């Protein structure tokens, strides 16, 4: 009934009506795709309706052999877990690119960051998500909103835990109560443990959570057993055409990664409340042939924090800038000119309007 309804919808309306699948949510895409396949059987249908498909789906091939697209697997794989268990390290290893910033501090990741792994016959869209916490600020509520979005979109779930975790995973288990997709429990950081401890941990989770698809011990940092996880994920993916062009590795723009790299250096160079009270906004990003010119504003909540961040004679901020520029040049592959300004935005973590301006939403 859904397919017939969508087919009728596609066949109605004016000649200039366009459906751009690149801007649709994964759920909408999945609902619409069967109707598109029906449309391929109608000669000239897409030329008439001007349906906009992702670049990698070629009209001529699909018109001649619509079944070919179903030989390809694609899906969304969300990585969830408590803070500081290694979610960002795991996604970076899976994708083969350093897309998520990594620090020893909890709650480093604030956004849902997608990393795309492409193969000849598959595409995996990973989501690195913020660590699951009890929200104390509106910022935290937005972070947990990103987690819930990742859960809703997922075709496969990776629940990442730590070999030294004391079995207190109730916040994560609460989110998984209504999940109807395969769930893999990965026990990370086994390079810091021993065989007996790993076996005991696996036995504990097998007894507690029989619904799990598999329990896999691994070390994301050492890239141990990551290939095993990849193969198991591929086996669970649905048949589907790619959601993104095969040359894409993420859904985020360059400005986002510039702000994240600077924020990483703040997390690494400051203690106590400074990293958690700071946000980075890229106000200018101009790329020419040989150089990228970036202007960044670092927001803090109090005047006293501004003084600490800048440091005596600007020394602390200068150190952040030097370290960030080095990583920015490595990331973008060209010379970077970086200028930084520090501003006070009082209570920005608790004000929805400011959070929306900084790229956060929901709650």
State the domain count: 3
* Fraction of helical residues: 25-40%
Secondary-structure element series: HHHHEHEEHEHEHEHHHEEHHEH
Low-confidence stretches: 1-69
Largest sheet: 6 strands, mixed
Helical stretch tally: 14
- Shape verdict: globular
Q: What is Rg?
A: 23 Å
**CATH-defined superfamily of the largest domain:** P-loop containing nucleotide triphosphate hydrolases
- Widest β-sheet, arrangement of strands: 2-3-1-4-5-6
CATH architecture of the largest domain: 3-Layer(aba) Sandwich
Number of E-state strands: 9
Strand content: 15-25%
The end-to-end distance, rounded to whole angstroms, is 34 Å
Mean pLDDT, all residues: 83
Q: CATH topology of the largest domain, which one?
A: Rossmann fold
Can you describe this structure?
The protein has 363 residues and is α/β, with parallel strands linked by helices. It has 3 domains: 66 residues, no CATH class; 164 residues, P-loop containing nucleotide triphosphate hydrolases (Rossmann fold); 104 residues, GMP Synthetase, Chain A, domain 3 (2-Layer Sandwich), CATH 3.30.300.20. 40% of the residues lie in helices and 19% in strands. The protein contains 14 helices and 9 strands. The protein has a 6-stranded mixed beta sheet, with helices on both faces. The protein starts with a helix and ends in a 6-residue tail after the last helix.
């Amino acid at each position: 009934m859904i397919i017939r309804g969508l087919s009728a919808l596609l066949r109605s309306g004016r000649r200039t009506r366009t459906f751009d699948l690149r801007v649709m949510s994964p759920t909408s895409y999945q609902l619409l795709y069967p109707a598109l396949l029906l449309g391929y059987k109608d000669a000239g249908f897409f030329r008439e309706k001007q349906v906009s498909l992702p670049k990698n789906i070629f009209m001529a091939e699909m018109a001649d052999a619509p079944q070919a697209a179903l030989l390809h697997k694609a899906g969304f794989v969300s990585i969830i877990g408590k803070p500081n268990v290694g979610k960002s390290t795991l996604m970076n290893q899976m994708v083969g690119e350093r897309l998520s910033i990594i620090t020893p501090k909890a709650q480093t990741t604030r956004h849902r960051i997608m990393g795309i792994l492409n193969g000849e016959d598959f595409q995996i869209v990973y989501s690195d998500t913020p660590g699951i916490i009890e929200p104390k600020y509106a910022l935290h509520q937005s972070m947990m909103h990103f987690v819930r979005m990742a859960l809703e979109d997922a075709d496969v779930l990776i629940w990442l835990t730590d070999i030294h975790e004391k079995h207190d995973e109730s916040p994560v288990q609460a989110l998984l109560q209504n999940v109807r997709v395969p769930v893999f429990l990965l026990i990370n950081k086994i390079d810091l443990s021993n065989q007996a401890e790993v076996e005991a941990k696996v036995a504990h989770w097998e007894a507690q959570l029989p619904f799990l698809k598999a329990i896999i011990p691994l070390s994301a940092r050492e890239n141990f057993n990551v290939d095993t996880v990849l193969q198991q994920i591929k086996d669970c993916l649905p048949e589907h055409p790619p959601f993104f062009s095969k040359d894409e590795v993420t859904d985020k723009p360059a400005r986002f990664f510039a702000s994240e790299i600077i924020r990483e250096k703040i997390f690494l160079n400051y203690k106590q409340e400074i990293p958690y009270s700071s946000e980075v906004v890229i106000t200018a990003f101009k790329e020419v042939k040989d150089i990228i010119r970036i202007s960044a504003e670092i927001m803090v909540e109090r005047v006293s924090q501004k003084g600490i961040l800048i440091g005596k004679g600007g020394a602390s901020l200068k150190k952040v800038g030097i370290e960030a520029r080095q990583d920015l040049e490595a990331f973008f592959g060209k010379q970077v000119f970086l200028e930084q300004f520090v501003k006070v935005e009082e209570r920005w973590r608790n004000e929805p309007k400011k959070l929306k301006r900084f790229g956060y939403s929901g709650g």
